[in-house]
Structures are given as structure tokens and as C-alpha cells.
Design a protein that fits this description.
Blueprint: H1 6-18, H2 23-33, H3 37-42, H4 45-48, H5 51-55, E1 60-69, E2 75-86, E3 92-98, H6 104-121, E4 127-132, H7 141-155, E5 164-167, H8 174-188, H9 209-227, E6 236-240, H10 244-255, E7 259-265, E8 268-271, H11 278-287, H12 292-299, E9 302-305, E10 318-321, H13 330-338, E11 343-345, H14 354-362, E12 366-368, H15 370-373, H16 376-389, H17 396-420, H18 427-445
Parallel strand pairs: 3-4, 3-5, 6-7, 6-10, 10-11, 11-12
Antiparallel strand pairs: 1-2, 2-4, 7-8, 8-9
The chain binds NADPH dihydro-nicotinamide-adenine-dinucleotide phosphate and (2Z)-2-iminopentanedioic acid.
Length: about 450
């Protein structure tokens, strides 16, 4: 990883010391600090008031036991987390992840990223994240419901419209938000729509929230293309993953005239040179909840199992990693560069390793970091909160226009900030600095808390 300047090195060393073993959190912190050198040189008030040190320490971390009963009557045990990272700009806001890899270091990396992402949206939301090491794979609908109820039985005391507003992430979609909301309502005897986002459309959800992260990532990529007088027309695109973010990224690429030729899940990837058949993919993944290999069997596309090849070996102009952290390493980046990729935009959170990001920079590949490119999901969650607060609901068209405008705004702010701080066209520098300054100024104004 690149060397930080002296003041930032001291802060980073302290983060390492206080948070042993949390490698993903270290990585996320390093990536932000790496951009802040010119900011601390120009504005000593941020280091004088220990703003960066405070930003790296969550305001509150909650860890709890989640016991529940499986279909065989056996008691199962998981661990639940909610890290309320920063509330300078608004109530803590961020998703819940249910995946066996979840531990404190993952939740903290995601919560830390969320602070800057939420700041970039320009909406009044702080940063937080939560989840559990619960593995939903192979679990029945009844088991998912009982787990969600057990999880909310503790979480309810920590959340609220003005406190902390969770939503979905990996393993948490509309079904899980439904069970979580139901249990919150049952325990509190209050219909508090604003306590969760990603709700169903007939009970307080917003149009476009389901599509928002994928659509937003593609709108952001479209802005990059437009800035150089290009478009999606005739472009081949790789989208990794085949979950919520991936599916709606594919949909928007197709609507804008591009062609998605590959997608994946943890079991492998499919290569479909004529373009992914999205209706079939939605049916396999959302309807039947099956593996992407079933898509290949039914569509005639090629399926390559994990371990036998990588989705990043498919030739394309644009790559949108939409699965998980560190899914695209330096070796993958080299393959993409050799195959002529021009733009990489992160639909997932931190999917590219620091090596990969460095190689893209050195090779002239435009790289858009997740905290900017995937901010459309949480931005639309904030639009859902607005609708809940005013007991209103907007049309699909209106909400999508708002999302597109927000993504354009983030794009332009990243570019302008990158120029102001001497790194024109570097979206990582632009996103980190623009996101940071807004939160840091709010923290300074609110005193030492
Ligand atoms: P989903 O659970 O809907 O889909 C996740 C997809 O990624 C699945 O295809 C899954 O495959 C794959 N995946 C997950 N973990 C791994 C792994 N360890 N190795 C390989 N593949 C994996 O989640 P989302 O689409 O909601 O989230 C995807 C990414 O986008 C995450 O990084 C999330 O943090 C980020 N994000 C999500 C937002 C949202 O609104 N949902 C907003 C902003 C960012 P399999 O089914 O085989 O596990
Ligand atoms: O990573 C993310 O931005 C999300 N999972 C969405 C968070 C939200 O509150 O909508």
C-alpha cells in the first residue's frame, strides 16, 4: 500500500493498534487516508481537532447474541452487529448483511465507507452498518423469518427514524426487510415506517429502491462516458455477482444500449456473448432462488465453476464488480487491462484490492470507487425516508429522475474536487476528499463529542 504522510501515518498506526485483526477495516481506512494528504496540508484544523482520529472510532458498537430455532427444532446461535459509526450529518444509515463471513472487521469497514458515501449523496444521513454471520443459503422461508425475528428482538432497542435506519445488503433483500419490519412493529406496537428502508411498495417502500444501487452505478458510469463524448452503445460489459445490485446494473446497461456478456455468483460465472437474458436470470435468481449455473443450463451460455477460471478473464470494455469485497485483485486487473477494459466502476463495496486500483491508475483505466458509484442505493433509501416523513409516495419516473440527478451530482462533485486538489480525473481522490470535508466540517461545528 502507498506510504502516507507523517500525521496520517500516526493516525493509521493508532487504528491498527486499536483494532487488531480487522483487515478489511484497516484497508478501508488506509484507502481514505491515502487521499487526505493535500487536505491536512491545506486545513490544519482537521488534525488539530483530532477530527480524523474521531472519524476512525465508531460512536457506538453493538454486538449481540441471536438464538433461534431451525426447522428440526434445534437451537441455532448467531452473532448480530450494529456499528453506529458517525451521526454528524444525520441518523446512522446503512444496510444489514447476512453472510457467514461477517465479523466486526467487515461491519466496521462497511460502516466507515458508508460515512463518506452518505455524505457524497448530499442527503442528511450519517453512517452505520450491521449484520450477522447467519448463512441464509439452504434455509427455508420459515427459518429466515425466525432468524429475522430473533435479530430484531435485540436490534429494535437501538434503531429509529431519528436514531439509526437500517436497510438491506448482501443476504438481506425485500423478504428479510419485511420480516424485520413486522417484528419491529409487533414489539413496539408502533407503525414506524421510517425505521427501515427497502420496504415493500404497498407498506411504505419507495419506487426504485430495489433497482437503485444497480441503476445508480450504471448512471454514474454513463456520466463518465458522457464526459468523454461516449455512450454505452455497442459496449460489452462484465457484471460480477447476480444479486440485487448486479441484476439491476445489467437491466440499466441493456436499457442504455450496452451488452452484459458475463455475470457470476460464488459458484462460478456465465459467459453469454450475445448478452445476458435478464428475464431468465431474474427468474432463476429472484423467482426460484437457484444458482447461476442453472441459468447456463437453461440458456445455453457457458458456465465456468469457481476455481476453473475468473469472470474477469472475459473480454469487455467496461467492468462493474457487483458481488463483494476484494473480489478483483491485481492479477485480475492485469487481465482486464490486457483485454482492453477502459472503465471499472464499483457496484459492490471495496471489490477491488489496493493493487488492482493502483494498476488501473497506472494503465489509464478510469476507476470509480464504490462510495461514489454505488451511492444510489442509500440515496434512494433517503428518498424513501423523505416519503415516509411526509406520508407521501412518488411515481417510478419521478424517483428515477431524482436518482439520476443525484448520481450526476456525485459524479460532478468528485471530478471538481479531484481538480481542486491536484489530481484531475481521479475519482477516488475526489470522492474521498469531497465526502470527508462535509462530515469533518459538521464535526468541527458540533464540538468535541
Ligand atoms: P446480494 O446478496 O443480493 O447478492 C450478492 C451477490 O454477490 C450474489 O451473487 C453472491 O453470490 C455474490 N457474492 C457474495 N459474497 C460472495 C463471495 N464471498 N464470493 C463470491 N461471490 C459472492 O447482495 P447485493 O447485490 O445487495 O450486494 C452486492 C454488493 O453491493 C455488496 O458489496 C454490497 O455491500 C454492495 N451494495 C449493496 C447495496 C444494496 O442496496 N443492496 C448498496 C450499495 C452497495 P452467492 O449467492 O453465491 O453468495
Ligand atoms: O452499502 C450500501 O450503501 C447499502 N447496503 C445500502 C444502505 C441503505 O441504507 O440503503
Amino acid at each position: 500500500m502507498p506510504v502516507l504522510d507523517e500525521k496520517l501515518t500516526t493516525i493509521y498506526d493508532e487504528v491498527l493498534r486499536r483494532n487488531p485483526g480487522e483487515t478489511e477495516f484497516h484497508q478501508a481506512v488506509h484507502e481514505v487516508l491515502d487521499s487526505l494528504g493535500p487536505v491536512v496540508a491545506k486545513h490544519p484544523q482537521y488534525t488539530d481537532a483530532a477530527v480524523i482520529n474521531r472519524l476512525c472510532e465508531p460512536e457506538r458498537q453493538i454486538i449481540f447474541r441471536v438464538p433461534w430455532v431451525d426447522d428440526k427444532g434445534k437451537v441455532q446461535l448467531n452473532r448480530g452487529f450494529r456499528v453506529e459509526f458517525n451521526s454528524a450529518l444525520g441518523p446512522y444509515k446503512g444496510g444489514l448483511r447476512f453472510h457467514p463471513s461477517v465479523y466486526l472487521g467487515i461491519v466496521k469497514f462497511l460502516g466507515f465507507e458508508q460515512i463518506f458515501k452518505n455524505s457524497l449523496t448530499g442527503m442528511p444521513i450519517g453512517g452505520g452498518k450491521g449484520g450477522s454471520d447467519f448463512d441464509p443459503k439452504g434455509r427455508s422461508d420459515g427459518e429466515i423469518m425466525r432468524f429475522c425475528q430473533a435479530f430484531m428482538t435485540e436490534l429494535y432497542r437501538h434503531i429509529g427514524e431519528y436514531t439509526d435506519v437500517p436497510a438491506g445488503d448482501i443476504g438481506v433483500g425485500g423478504r428479510e426487510i419485511g420480516y424485520l419490519f413486522g417484528q419491529h412493529k409487533r414489539i413496539t406496537n408502533r407503525y414506524e415506517s421510517g425505521v427501515l428502508t427497502g420496504k415493500g411498495l404497498t407498506w411504505g417502500g419507495s419506487q426504485v429502491r430495489t433497482e437503485a444501487t444497480g441503476y445508480g452505478t450504471v448512471f454514474f458510469t454513463h456520466e463518465i462516458l458522457k464526459a468523454r463524448d461516449e455512450s454505452f452503445d455497442g459496449r460489452d460489459v462484465i457484471v460480477s455477482g447476480s444479486g440485487n445490485v448486479a441484476i439491476y446494473a445489467i437491466e440499466k446497461v441493456h436499457q442504455l444500449g450496452g451488452r452484459v456478456v458475463a455475470a457470476s455468483d460464488s459458484g462460478g460465472y456465465v459467459h453469454d456473448p450475445s448478452g445476458i437474458d435478464l428475464e431468465l436470470l431474474k427468474d432463476v435468481k429472484n423467482g426460484r432462488r437457484e444458482r447461476i449455473s442453472t441459468y447456463a443450463t437453461e440458456s445455453g451460455a457457458t458456465f465456468v465453476p469457481t476455481g476453473k477460471g475468473s469472470v474477469w478473464s472475459v473480454k469487455a470494455d467496461i467492468a462493474l464488480p457487483c458481488a463483494t469485497q476484494n473480489e478483483l485483485n491485481g492479477h485480475d486487473a492485469r487481465t482486464l487491462i490486457d483485454n482492453g477494459v477502459k472503465i471499472v466502476a464499483e457496484g459492490a463495496n471495496m471489490p477491488c484490492t489496493p493493487d488492482a486500483v493502483r494498476l488501473f491508475g497506472e494503465s489509464g483505466v478510469t476507476f470509480a470507487p464504490g462510495k461514489a458509484a454505488n451511492a444510489g442505493g442509500v440515496a434512494t433509501s433517503a428518498l424513501e425516508m423523505q416519503q415516509n416523513a411526509s406520508r407521501d409516495s412518488w411515481s417510478f419516473e419521478h424517483t428515477e429522475q431524482r436518482l439520476e440527478k443525484i448520481m450526476r451530482g456525485i459524479h460532478d462533485r468528485c471530478l471538481e474536487t479531484s481538480e481542486e486538489y491536484g489530481a484531475p480525473g481521479n475519482y477516488t481522490v475526489g470522492a474521498n476528499i469531497a465526502g470527508f470535508i462535509q462530515v469533518a466540517d459538521a464535526m468541527l461545528a458540533q464540538g468535541v463529542i
